From TrEMBL:
<protein>
    <recommendedName>
        <fullName>PD-(D/E)XK endonuclease-like domain-containing protein</fullName>
    </recommendedName>
</protein>
<dbReference type="Pfam" id="PF12705">
    <property type="entry name" value="PDDEXK_1"/>
</dbReference>
<dbReference type="InterPro" id="IPR038726">
    <property type="entry name" value="PDDEXK_AddAB-type"/>
</dbReference>
<dbReference type="InterPro" id="IPR011604">
    <property type="entry name" value="PDDEXK-like_dom_sf"/>
</dbReference>
<feature type="domain" description="PD-(D/E)XK endonuclease-like">
    <location>
        <begin position="11"/>
        <end position="240"/>
    </location>
</feature>
Length: 300
């Protein structure tokens, strides 16, 4: 581990993904802190609310003994999680919109309840500290730490190995060029002792079981992630976080710009000390310098 983790550059799948989309959005979401609260800012929207509720239900099962995991209906657990994102807390613009997303979540949970598959078998849970998520010193030379949570690790007694399972709540397949699986592989290999023998995506919106995907080459995974991580570090050193679309901004950074400039509505603070905002559907951003009017439901 770095001599001082507070001086290291921390990267994760979410932060790297944001940086690749728009460096300005990365700055506003992962570096900037609200001077009034000292917290980072976050944007909540319906798709994120759905994903959060479903993931919380499923991921929480890994610490429960296998024989007790389904003693309480998963839908009851989902109801409790949904309360945390209901209404404005989830960025919903109407009860009808919330109902549509909640129904999708209920269908996902019902699908898993009917055919739990890997969730009914033994799991490995990577330990984490109270302050930091699972992490390791990714590059000592560059003082970069890689961190993140893997959705599920199925324990495979044959070979004393693990199976990476990533839950998908969106409607689209994971891009082949995504760095998510390479990052999950690196974290799993370096944060626990068992070898990784397979990986799968579980598209909960439409599939009854996980779909196996090819494991990346570990060296290639490291080089791909390192290349982007070094770009993140350089941008931080130069304090250069420009949107590729220029001053007008892009669909990724515009919502964060609205919050940065005093817009949006604060709806709560997350467990990770992040101020969570939502942006009303028809909030007028046309008068903001460098911003155009846009519909957040359409472009986010």
């Amino acid at each position: 581990m770095a001599r001082d983790p507070y001086s290291a550059v921390w990267v994760s799948h979410s932060s790297i993904g944001k940086f690749l989309q728009c460096p300005r959005a990365y700055y506003l979401a992962h570096i900037y802190k609200n001077p009034k609260t000292g917290n980072r800012i976050g944007l909540m929207q319906p798709a994120l609310a759905l994903g959060q509720a479903v993931h919380n239900v499923l991921e929480s099962l890994s610490v429960i003994p296998t024989e007790e995991r389904f003693s309480r209906p998963l839908l009851a657990r989902f109801e409790e999680e949904w309360e945390k994102v209901s209404g404005k807390l989830g960025g919903f613009s109407s009860s009808e919109e919330e109902g549509e997303y909640k129904e999708r979540g209920e269908q996902m949970i019902s699908r898993v309840s009917a055919k739990p598959g890997v969730l009914a078998r033994r799991a490995v849970k990577i330990k984490q500290e109270d302050t930091f998520p699972p992490h390791y010193l990714f590059s000592e030379k560059d003082n970069i730490i890689l961190c993140g949570k893997v959705d599920w690790l199925e324990y495979l007694p044959e070979g004393d190995a693990v199976h990476i399972v990533d839950f998908k709540t969106g409607k689209h397949d994971e891009d082949e060029d995504s760095l998510q699986l390479p990052i999950y592989l690196l974290l799993t290999v370096n944060c626990q002792k068992r070898k990784v023998s397979q990986a799968s995506y579980w598209y909960l919106d439409r599939a009854d079981e996980p779909q196996k995907v090819a494991l990346p080459n570990i060296r290639d995974a490291y080089e791909r992630v390192l290349a982007v991580a070094k770009r993140v570090k350089l941008a931080r050193e130069l304090r250069s976080f420009k949107c590729p679309k220029g001053e007008v901004g892009c669909f990724v950074c515009r919502p964060f710009e609205i919050i940065y400039r005093g817009g949006g509505e604060l709806v709560g603070t997350s467990d990770s000390k992040q101020d969570v905002y939502v942006i009303p559907l028809h909030q007028d951003s046309s008068k903001e310098p460098g911003l155009q009017r846009f519909d957040t439901e359409t472009i986010l």
